[in-house]
Amino acid sequence: MEVGWYLRFSKTDRVEAMVTAKTAPQVRHEAHIFRDWIFEFQDKEDHVLARMTRRKPLYKDEDSA
After folding, report:
1. pTM (2 decimals)?
2. What's the start-to-end Cα distance of the chain, in Å?
3. Tell me, what's the pLDDT at 25?
4. Residue 6: in which H helix or E strand, if any?
5. What are residue 6's phi and psi, to 5 degrees?
6. Would you say residue 54 has pLDDT above 60?
7. CB-facing half-sphere around the CA of 59: CA atoms within 13 A
8. Which residues pair with 21 in a beta bridge?
């Protein structure tokens, strides 16, 4: 799992990842490490959509550009 690297070096304020149900607990564990991100999870059959959003945005909102 490379989620930690994406969160450390992300040049965006939101990261979404579709992970297997089997690896979802590893991504959920990252929430304990990366306290400056909000983690949301949505079950989708045999996968989980993990959405991670910075608590304090660093970059301009792409939607308002």
Report:
1. 0.82
2. 32
3. 95
4. helix 3-9
5. -60, -40
6. yes
7. 13
8. none
The CA distance from 32 to 24, in Å, is 14
**How long is the chain?**
65
Which of 17, 49, 51 is CA-nearest to residue 37? 51
How does pLDDT run across 10-26, given as a tens digit for each residue?
Answer: 999 999 999 999 999 99
Residue 10 phi/psi, 5° resolution?
A: -65, 140
Tell how many helices (H) and how many strands (E) occur in the chain.
2, 3
Centroid of chain to Cα 24: 11
Measure the CA–CA gap between 26 and 44, rounded to whole angstroms.
Answer: 17
Q: Output the six-digit token pair for 26.
A: 């590893």
Residues 6 or more apart whose Cβ sits within 8 Å of residue 16: 49, 50, 51, 52
Give the other-Cβ count within 10 Å of 41's Cβ. Answer: 15
